[in-house]
Amino acid sequence: MKGNVKNGTTNNARYTVVFDQENINTQTQKKKSGWFGTRHFVTFMLFLGMANAYVMRTNMSVAIVAMVNHTAIEAKVSSHDEPIDTECGDVAIDRGNGSLSENDGEFVWETDIQGYVLSSFFYGYVITQIPFGILSKRYGNIYFLGVGMLINSVFGLLVPISANMGIWWLIAVRFIQGLGEGPIVPCTHALLAKWIPPNERSRMGAFVYAGAQFGTVISMPLSGLLSISTGGWPSIFYVFGAVGTVWCIAFLFLVFEDPEANPRMNIDEKKYIQKALGNKTGAPIPPIPWKSIAKSLPFWAILLAHMGHNYGYETLMTELPTYMKQVLHFSIKDNGFLSALPYLAMWLFSIFISHVADWLLTKPCFTHTIVRKLINGIGQYGPALALVAASFTGCDRWLTVAILTIGVGLNGGIYSGFKVNHLDISPQFAGILMAFTNCLANLAGLLAPIYAGNVVLGTPSQAKWRIVFVTAAGVYAACCTFYTLFASGERQPWDTQEEPDKKKESDTDPEIVTTRT
After folding, report:
1. Which of the chain's termini has less CB crowding within 10 Å, N or C?
2. With contact defined as beta carbons under 8 Å apart, do 425 and 86 qualify?
3. What is the predicted pLDDT for the residue at 424?
4. What is the pLDDT of residues 478-515, one digit of tens each?
5. Euclidean distance between CA atoms 30 and 37, whole angstroms
6. Quick check: is 32 in a domain?
């Protein structure tokens, strides 16, 4: 009897040990992939950083509507005997209930001057892209990103003072803000490459870059409200400059360069990320294969898609509030809210389509190349068609807003398209590739407000704005077509490959096989 009990006890003990071991394995796996780990916190902080970056670049688009004396400009145009546009005369009557009752600003800047003010930020922005992208590869990304954005935020506080000092002072301050924001995209891309496993890149990358739309959605309506508050348009820059400064300090203290540098993160999550990425501690930094990159068609496909996107996006982001004021005659308060609607749609759609992209990648018939081309096509052909349609809606204000909202919403596909494609073709040099494409793309983007300002110079009309929108649509479509023909989702031969012994080890480790791109 005692023997039976003893045997039963032994069997139960063995069962308990096995059961406990299974629980430990299950808990360990949960810790590795956890629903919210350090990599998710880093992703969230980068999301807030991207939101802050776009707040600082878009707030001027709404603020300038309140800063400019539109009545004085219209009187100046009338004195030159230029015919007044009467296409939407019935809409113009409604202005008595909205925009005409609002106080004009103090600056008499015609649309061409406004275009130079809006584009001055991007001149500084493009200069620091490539240098900081290369330097951050060697010296790390945290301080370039954090300190750069701190400069951007602090100089944002100086915008009201510089505007009262003169137009050139304002342009200089906006230029310096652009210099500070330059590292945000290449450094963010490099940090994603160090922190995010390949099987999570579509949704994590889309979430981070969707911060751009979140920032725009916050910036435009809040800027509209602040501009008619007791603090007036200067309060726009004081509020956002202070918020940006707080984020920069938090980022510098709480975020680390990579999992290896973070002493406080969960060890299981750290191993999970390192195995998934095939990281080798202490590995030397390989030389950048400049010639191979220059001859790579997949790289050129990303570059042109990026340039086409920025031109179309900056056309809408910088000019939509002005278009709604000049042609659709919305009040400043309504202007901010309605200008933000397309970017709210873009933000929501980008999150949805990123999960679709990751789901498609689990299917054997969908390769990275097919998924990137498919999702990117939605993201660029969609807004191209919407811009053309919105050019011919006549005086129907709400139809125009609806079409632009849908079109810009579809633009969210680019974050799971070309925007994360750098990580596919070259995880080793993703930050540097992003620095190059983002630099040249913003050179194209800074032309958008200048071009629009000169086209609509004088009396604004639907015919003039139609030229602006159709041009942007053509650029969108042409660049997307090149991407569809020549893009790739495969790691390129010129990217530094893993060592043979490391590759052999990863091929036999099921945990790595499931996460390999």
Report:
1. N
2. no
3. 87
4. 999 999 999 998 989 998 654 444 444 444 444 444 33
5. 10
6. no
Residue 372 lies inside a defined structural domain of this protein: yes
Return the number of other C-beta atoms located less than 10 Å from residue 138's C-beta: 7
Residue 29 within any structural domain of the chain: no
Residues sharing a CB contact under 8 Å with residue 348, sequence separation 6 or more, in sequence order: 409, 412
Stated length of the chain: 517
Task: Give the contacts of 298 (CB within 8 A, at least 6 positions apart).
Answer: 421, 425, 486, 487, 488, 492
Backbone phi, psi, residue 68, to 5°? -90, 145
How many structural domains are present in the chain?
A: 1
DSSP state of 287: P
What DSSP letter does each residue of 374-389 carry, written as one string?
HHHHHHHHHHHHHHHH
Are 495 and 425 in contact by the 8 Å Cβ rule? The answer is: yes
CATH, residue 367:
1.20.1250.20
Reduced to 3 states (helix: H, G, I; strand: E, B; else coil), residue 68 is strand
> What SS3 state is found at 263?
coil
CB 308 within 8 A of CB 418: no
Residue 394, CA distances (Å) to 68, 206, 207, 283, 462 in order: 26, 35, 36, 61, 8
Domain that holds residue 265: 38-89+101-280+288-513
Distance of CA 53 to the CA centre of its chain: 9
pLDDT band at 43 (very low <50, low <70, confident <90, very high): very high
Residue pair 275/267 in contact (Cβ under 8 Å)? The answer is no
Q: How far apart are CA 298 and CA 491, in angstroms?
A: 10
Which residue in 59, 161, 186 sits closest to 442, CA to CA? 186
Sign of the C-alpha dihedral computed for residues 297, 299, 300 and 304 taken in this order: positive
Rounded Cα distance between 386 and 312, Å, is 11
Dihedral, 7, 8, 11, 12 alpha carbons, nearest 10: -150
Give the span between the Cα atoms of 406 and 393, in whole angstroms.
14
Q: Is the pLDDT of residue 219 over 70?
A: yes
Tell me how crowded residue 198 is: count the other CB atoms within 10 A of its CB.
Answer: 20
Rg over CA atoms, the chain: 26
Structure tokens at 88: 């939407």
Asked whether residue 16 is domain-assigned, the answer is: no
CA distance linking residue 264 with residue 457, whole number of Å:
57
Q: Is residue 467 predicted with pLDDT exceeding 50?
A: yes
Nearest CA to 234 among 170, 151, 157?
157
**Which residues, listed in sequence order, are joined to residue 107 by a DSSP beta bridge?**
68
Of the candidates 137, 331, 146, 391, the residue with the CA atom closest to the CA atom of residue 245: 146
- Tell me 107's DSSP state: B
Backbone angles phi, psi at 87, to 5 degrees: -60, -40
pLDDT of residue 122 exceeding 70, the answer is yes
